[in-house]
């Protein structure tokens, strides 16, 4: 990065099966962002954001307050939380004021390294490093950055973060089949390695936050929820680092990823969504009742497992090269309190204390079979009953076990 790398226009593509398909371009004029689809892309019929950016010729523009004027599908490519903190800190170290960077500048610095299949040119992203990684060292460096120190490691941490979102520090890694050797993992993985994501705690997290999320993933899978492969890496301090296999990659192929936040142009910081909206969105996008059932099971799990940080960025959809949409595997499942202790996503209008009755009504409103509703509730209850033995086995502290156990019962 240097102070001359700014972008007045961005060309957007989809990287499917190693081939970049031109999608369109973004440009700014009079502080407003405009987007236009490429004529060749319109003929393909691949609808990358059917609700807010449908396939049509001509210019599109959006109100600036939300996503700084970007269409939601491209805003999904930008890091927030930890990733934005890293990027802004690194920009300052290069003599660039972060407030001078436009959304298009930021997309140029994502380049080809973003989550999902969208790629951006010009590509000003940092070159991916190579070699083995030490998670304890990365965790230590992340803590130093959060404390306002460690300018020297910003570049490596920024490279490892890619465009992953969320408040907690993350690294995109390559993992060998035996889960013993960890490498840099954004672009070119060594042969035999798979793309994974690993999380580190913040000062607000307990030292067992990774273990708690790991146990939640195990319980969610037992409850019938689609969960990617997960692993708990040992740590020199604390109960371990939670890691999950990336679901926006299928081998070397990329999948287009779009959050509910970006699809609906919903402000995830202001809770306003209801699971009724998410079930309707899933049906509209996928046209598959099995995917609607998956979203319902996820709603049941989040409510009964006291995962109240279930905002619109924590639900995603995947589109393949044929244009087929599916609900993405579940992620960011853990014990959490939402805004003012309420569920971030309401259940039939109830956010403060959604109950089994609300969940049952949700299933009925979505016209799901009674057997599906009953199965989701019972399997989730049975899975959550394993909290204490699994948590003890994974090194969760007694205090956390009791705190979570009380909320689950």
TrEMBL record:
<keyword id="KW-0418">Kinase</keyword>
<feature type="domain" description="HipA-like C-terminal">
    <location>
        <begin position="163"/>
        <end position="387"/>
    </location>
</feature>
<dbReference type="InterPro" id="IPR052028">
    <property type="entry name" value="HipA_Ser/Thr_kinase"/>
</dbReference>
<comment type="similarity">
    <text>Belongs to the HipA Ser/Thr kinase family.</text>
</comment>
<dbReference type="Pfam" id="PF13657">
    <property type="entry name" value="Couple_hipA"/>
</dbReference>
<dbReference type="GO" id="GO:0004674">
    <property type="term" value="F:protein serine/threonine kinase activity"/>
</dbReference>
<dbReference type="InterPro" id="IPR017508">
    <property type="entry name" value="HipA_N1"/>
</dbReference>
<dbReference type="Pfam" id="PF07804">
    <property type="entry name" value="HipA_C"/>
</dbReference>
<feature type="domain" description="HipA N-terminal subdomain 1">
    <location>
        <begin position="21"/>
        <end position="120"/>
    </location>
</feature>
<keyword id="KW-0808">Transferase</keyword>
<protein>
    <submittedName>
        <fullName>Serine/threonine-protein kinase HipA</fullName>
    </submittedName>
</protein>
<dbReference type="InterPro" id="IPR012893">
    <property type="entry name" value="HipA-like_C"/>
</dbReference>
<dbReference type="GO" id="GO:0005829">
    <property type="term" value="C:cytosol"/>
</dbReference>
